[in-house]
Structures are given as C-alpha cells and as structure tokens.
C-alpha cells in the first residue's frame, strides 16, 4: 500500500493549494478513459488508493447486503479511478469520466472536502457490516446465510459456536481453519502449492499441465486463495483427472477439506446461446483447503524440492485433536481451487479464471452489448453469425471481441 491514507490526502491538498494560490501554467488535465474496464490497462500501481478503498468498501457492503446492482456501480467507479495515470488533484479533473455516478461522486467529494466519507466511516463501524464480514469470513458461508444468522442474533464466531446452528461440512472446516484462511496467502506459498499440485497432476496423468490463475497470474503478491487450471494437450485425456489428483493429494495428507463438482458443460442448446449468460461455469472443479507444511528456512524457489520437504513434513506431523490450537504447528491451511478444462476450452477457461472479477464481468458485458456475442469460461458464441468462435489463446479471444490484447498484469480492474 502506498503510504498512509491521511498522508496521501494531505499531499493532495498541499498540491491542490499550490495550484489555487499560485495559478500554475500547467493545469491539472481532465482525465479520459474508455468506459469498459476491458478496454483499459489497469496495473497494480494505484495512484488513488484513498478513493478506491472507500468505494470498494461500499461495494463490499452492498454485495454483502444482497444489493448487487449498487455493488457493481461502486466497483466500476473504483475501477475507473484505479486506471488513472496519476493521483486526482481536483474534482474538475473527473468531469467526463465514465461510471462515476452521483453516489460515487458524493463519496469522492466528501473525502476531498472533509478528509473522509461519512458513509464509509459509519459503514465501517456498523454492527451489521462487522458481523457480515466476520461471518462471511467463514469458508462456505455466503451473504444470505450470514444475514439469516444475524437476524437470529448471531454476530460473531463465539455466538455461532454456542448457537447450536447446524453447519455443513464446508462451514465446519471453515470455522476450524478460520484464522489461517483469513490470513493472506503469499506468492511463495502459492508457488509451493503449485509444485505440489504439479507433482500430483504429473503423477496421475503424465503430460497434463497446470497453470496458476487468479490474482497471482495478474502479478499480485498475496491472495485470499490459490487458483489453478489443469488441462491436457490431447482433447479428452483430461476426463476423470480430477478424482485422481484429489486422491493423490489426499493420500499424501495435503487436503484438510475438499469438495469436487463434476463437469456439467455441454455445447448444446442447454448451454448454448439460448441460455441466459451465467458467470458460474461448469468445469470439473475442486474447492479445497490445503494443508501446507510451513517452509523451513529456505527460499521457496531455491529448494531443489519443495514437494519432498512437504511430504516429509506431512508424514512427521501427528494430528492433534484441535489442529489450529497447537502452538508448534508446522503447517497452515490455505484455500485452493482446482479447475480441469479440456484443451478446446482452455483459452476461455484461462481468460475467465485470471480475473479480476470486474474485468471478467466487463468482458462479458462488452461481448454482449457491443458485439452481440456471448462469452463464458467455456466458449464464445456469435449471435449474429450463429456460431461458436474458436480460440486457442487469450490473444485470439480479444481479437474476436475486437479488443486490444490486455496482458494479465493489466487486468487488475
Ligand atoms: N471469477 C469470476 N467471477 C466470479 C468469481 C471468480 O470471474 N464471480 C474469476 C475471476 C478471478 C478468478 O475467477 C478467481 O477468483 P478469486 O480467487 O475470487 O479472485 P482473485 O482475483 O484470485 O482474488 P484473490 O487474489 O483474493 O484470490
Ligand atoms: Mg484467487
């Protein structure tokens, strides 16, 4: 994070003051950006974190309150500010920018004039928001469940544990590994897991390939989970792969929890153009909680064999009754998502699983409203030509969509 919010604001104001007291020959230029996030290059270098953090918090609150429309509006506004080449120096620079609605502008002005947004500040301390955050921090608990619990008077983990609520298997695991799962996953940890999954995959199907997707593929240094896409260069060889990978990982003691869902995608009328677009894809997918042995003093990369060390560590560890409570625990729990795609859909899957979430949403919106096409993580369908457009790389998909290619590191909308 670039500096403390207050410092940044003060710096902005100072600069602004010098603008107004001594009219500078260089006026701060009005920004201009295209309106779809997938037309813009958004790196991780954000010059407006004070504003984007505020708008993102309101987006999160809206999403947790089942107000998706408002959530997207705030996400889009934040994304526009993330794409700006420098810090905003005056409100007038924002005129003409897309996606900044009345509400978002009010928040920005409030921060500008008062140093903070009263709406953001009151949301942050609201009991409801705090409870929603804590409860949805449990793996397997979504906004709806959290809302129901809150209405039943449950606001924190302690109250939940004493409530007699029945938890499903995912939620039990989520509660058990709560602290670990809510601690960011580092790039080094993601790389260590990549090595393990790679070993699993090549052991059960030589020639199969894995790629790290999600935020880490976009260059982020931390994430809330680790996402992998698995495929095989020969179409059809990937069938039945997931259960084998999961069995291998389970046998080696790497999984604290897993739930696999079957591939249910068919390129027929059921999933084709007649169907409303859905952002849920239907790949064979495994949602898991990984047991990652703590890396002993060595660079994650220099280890000639992370996997070997992990295997040994897992074999050494005797499982205590309450695993998270053990003080000298030599592992941590990490959320890992595995997805298997046939090679024919791989480019779409890769594009769809690289994110960011808003970038993906904008790609689908662009496809639909600007191109008359339906894009999913499986395929691209041209509604006018009434045919699927094939692609074997992300570049080809951008070309089909009439968009300039944006590399993963610039999809951080
Ligand atoms: N995705 C999407 N729409 C969703 C959920 C996910 O398009 N509703 C895609 C985009 C990102 C990718 O899947 C992985 O999802 P996350 O792990 O939630 O996102 P992330 O960018 O990897 O974030 P983090 O770094 O926090 O894991
Ligand atoms: Mg992720």
Automatic annotation (TrEMBL):
Q: Would you tell me the protein name for this molecule?
A: DNA-directed DNA/RNA polymerase mu
First-level EC class:
transferase
Molecular functions per Gene Ontology: DNA binding; DNA nucleotidylexotransferase activity; DNA-directed DNA polymerase activity; metal ion binding
Q: What is its main location?
A: nucleus
Q: What is the lineage of its organism?
A: Eukaryota, Metazoa, Chordata, Craniata, Vertebrata
Where is the protein localized?
Nucleus
Where is Mg(2+) bound in this sequence? 225, 227, 337
Family statement: Belongs to the DNA polymerase type-X family.
Cellular component GO terms, alphabetical: nucleus
Q: Which reaction does it catalyse?
A: DNA(n) + a 2'-deoxyribonucleoside 5'-triphosphate = DNA(n+1) + diphosphate
Q: Which cofactor does it need?
A: Mg(2+)
Shown stretch of the complete protein: 105 to 517 of 517
- Please indicate which superkingdom the organism of origin belongs to: Eukaryota
Stated EC number for the protein is 2.7.7.7
State what this protein does.
Answer: Template-independent DNA polymerase which catalyzes the random addition of deoxynucleoside 5'-triphosphate to the 3'-end of a DNA initiator. One of the in vivo functions of this enzyme is the addition of nucleotides at the junction (N region) of rearranged Ig heavy chain and T-cell receptor gene segments during the maturation of B- and T-cells. Gap-filling polymerase involved in repair of DNA double-strand breaks by non-homologous end joining (NHEJ).
* Gene (name only): polm
Q: Name one GO biological process term.
A: double-strand break repair via nonhomologous end joining
Which keywords belong to this entry? Answer: Magnesium, Metal-binding, Nucleotidyltransferase, Nucleus, Terminal addition, Transferase
């Amino acid at each position: 994070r670039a500096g403390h919010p207050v410092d940044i604001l003060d710096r902005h104001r100072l600069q602004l003051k010098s603008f107004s007291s001594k009219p500078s020959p260089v006026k701060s230029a009005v920004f201009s950006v295209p309106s779809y996030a997938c037309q813009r290059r958004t790196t991780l270098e954000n010059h407006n974190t004070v504003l984007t953090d505020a708008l993102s918090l309101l987006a999160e609150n809206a999403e947790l309150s089942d107000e998706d429309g408002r959530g997207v509006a705030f996400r889009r506004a934040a994304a526009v500010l993330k794409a700006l080449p420098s810090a905003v120096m005056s409100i007038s620079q924002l005129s003409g920018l897309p996606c900044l609605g009345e509400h978002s502008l009010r928040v920005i002005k409030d921060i500008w004039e008062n140093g903070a947004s009263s709406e953001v500040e009151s949301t942050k301390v609201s009991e409801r928001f705090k409870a929603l955050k804590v409860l949805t921090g449990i793996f397997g608990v979504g906004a709806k469940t959290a809302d129901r619990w809150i209405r039943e008077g449950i606001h924190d983990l302690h109250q939940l544990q004493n409530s007699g609520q029945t938890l499903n298997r995912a939620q039990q695991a989520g509660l058990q590994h709560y602290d670990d799962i809510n601690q960011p996953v580092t790039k080094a940890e993601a790389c260590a897991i990549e090595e393990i999954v790679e070993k699993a995959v090549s052991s059960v199907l030589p020639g199969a390939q894995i790629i790290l997707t999600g935020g880490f593929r976009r260059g982020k240094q931390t994430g809330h989970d680790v996402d992998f896409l698995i495929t095989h260069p020969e179409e059809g060889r990937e069938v039945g792969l997931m259960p084998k990978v999961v069995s291998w990982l389970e046998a080696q003691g790497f999984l604290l929890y897993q739930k696999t869902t079957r591939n249910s995608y068919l390129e027929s009328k059921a999933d084709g153009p007649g169907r409303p677009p859905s952002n849920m894809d239907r790949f064979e997918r495994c949602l898991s909680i990984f047991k990652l042995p703590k890396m002993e003093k060595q660079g994650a990369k220099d280890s000639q064999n992370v996997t070997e060390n992990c295997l040994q560590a897992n074999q050494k560890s005797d499982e205590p009754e309450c695993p998270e409570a053990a003080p000298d625990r030599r592992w941590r729990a990490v959320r890992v998502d595995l997805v298997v795609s046939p090679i024919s859909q791989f480019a779409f899957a890769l594009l769809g699983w690289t994110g960011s979430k808003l970038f993906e949403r904008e790609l689908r919106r662009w496809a639909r409203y600007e191109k008359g096409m339906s894009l999913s993580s499986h395929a691209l369908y041209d509604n006018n030509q009434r045919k699927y457009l094939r692609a074997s790389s992300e570049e080809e998909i951008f070309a089909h969509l009439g968009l300039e290619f944006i590399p993963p590191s610039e999809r951080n909308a």
